[in-house]
Amino acid sequence: SEGIIYLVDASDMERFEEMKDDLHELATIEELRHIPILVLGNKCDSHQAVSEVILRDAIGISTLNSRPIALYMCS
After folding, report:
1. Which of 22, 41, 56, 72 is buried most deeply by CB count within 10 Å?
2. CA distance 30 to 40
């Protein structure tokens, strides 16, 4: 793999914990340790969507800074 794209629904706050758990589990797979992860915060145009800062915190991206990872909001 050249990279991993992980798509999350930025408007579904009830599933943030599940998204966080899945992302962190993915990040602990040794074979994927050096593979960059692109997290896409989808539905950012929805009035229910959280901001990039809130999403970043909710899914714990800052705790994964030992690997190449980025978050971009999209719709």
Report:
1. 41
2. 22
What pTM value is reported for the model?
0.90
Bridge partners of residue 29, in order along the sequence? none
CA distance 73 to 44: 6
Summarised one tens digit per residue, pLDDT across range 12-47 is 999 999 999 999 999 889 898 889 999 999 999 999
Name beta bridge partners: 69.
37
Phi, psi of 24, deg, nearest 5: -70, -35
Between CA 6 and CA 49 the distance in angstroms is 17
Closest to 46 (Cα-Cα) out of 20, 73, 69, 68: 73
> Encoding tokens for residue 43?
């539905």
